[in-house]
Write a structure and sequence with these properties.
single chain, alpha/beta, six-stranded parallel beta sheet
Length: 189
C-alpha cells in the first residue's frame, strides 16, 4: 500500500537534487559530439540553479584510460576523445566550471549513465533527481533509466536538455515518458 504522506511521492521537483549532466566543452562548438542546442540548455540550466541551493551536482563524461569490451570499438570510431580526463576537452563550460570551483560537487564517470556509487554518495539513497544537460538521447537517458531502476524518483526538464539533434532529443524524451511514474518529463520548472 502506498502511503500518501510519503515524501518520495511528492510532486514538487524542487525538493530534489539538480543533476547537471555533462555540460562540457566536448559537447560544444565544432566537436563531433556537439549538441546543436547546447547554449539553449545551458541558459535553461542557469535559470534552474538558484532553485537548488546546496543541492546541485555536476557530472562529466570522460574516456577511460584503457577502453575495454565494447568501449574499444566505440573509441576506434571516436579517437579524438581518447585524451586524459584533465584535458580541456572534458572541462565543464561556464558558468558550471565556476560553480564547481566554488564547491558544488562533480561526479566524473567513464560511462554514459551517471547513476551509481559516486552520484548516490552525493545525493543519498532514496533521493529525487532533477536531470538537465546533454545529451538527452545518451547520458541523460542512461542516467534517468538507471536511477529509476534503483527506485529513485526522476524528473527530466526537457527545456534544460539538448540532444544530438532535435529529433533525437524528442525521441529520448518520448522513451523516458514510457517510464512514468518512475520518470516524469516536464517542459520546464
Amino acid at each position: 500500500m502506498i502511503d500518501a504522506s510519503d515524501p518520495t511521492d511528492a510532486s514538487d521537483p524542487a525538493d530534489g537534487w539538480l543533476v547537471v549532466i555533462d555540460m562540457q566543452r566536448v559537447f560544444t562548438g565544432a566537436s563531433p559530439w556537439a549538441a546543436p542546442r547546447y547554449a539553449d540548455a545551458a541558459a535553461a540550466i542557469e535559470e534552474l540553479l538558484p532553485r537548488f541551493p546546496g543541492r546541485t551536482v555536476f557530472t562529466r563524461f570522460v574516456a577511460p584510460e584503457r577502453p575495454t569490451g565494447a568501449w574499444r570499438p566505440y573509441y576506434r570510431d571516436w579517437p579524438f576523445a581518447l585524451v586524459p580526463d584533465t584535458d580541456p576537452l572534458y572541462a565543464l563550460t561556464e558558468p558550471f566550471a565556476g560553480r564547481a570551483e566554488r564547491g558544488d560537487p562533480v561526479v566524473t564517470e567513464t560511462t554514459f549513465g551517471k547513476w551509481g556509487t559516486s552520484l548516490r554518495r552525493v545525493t543519498g539513497e532514496q533521493s529525487h533527481l532533477v536531470l538537465a544537460g546533454v545529451s538527452t538521447d545518451c547520458c541523460v537517458l542512461s542516467t534517468a533509466l538507471a536511477a529509476a531502476d534503483a527506485g529513485v524518483r526522476v524528473t527530466v526538464v526537457a527545456s534544460a536538455c539538448a540532444g544530438a539533434s532535435d529529433a533525437d532529443h524528442a525521441r529520448a524524451l518520448d522513451a523516458m515518458r514510457l517510464y512514468a511514474p518512475l520518470v516524469t518529463v516536464v517542459d520546464s520548472l
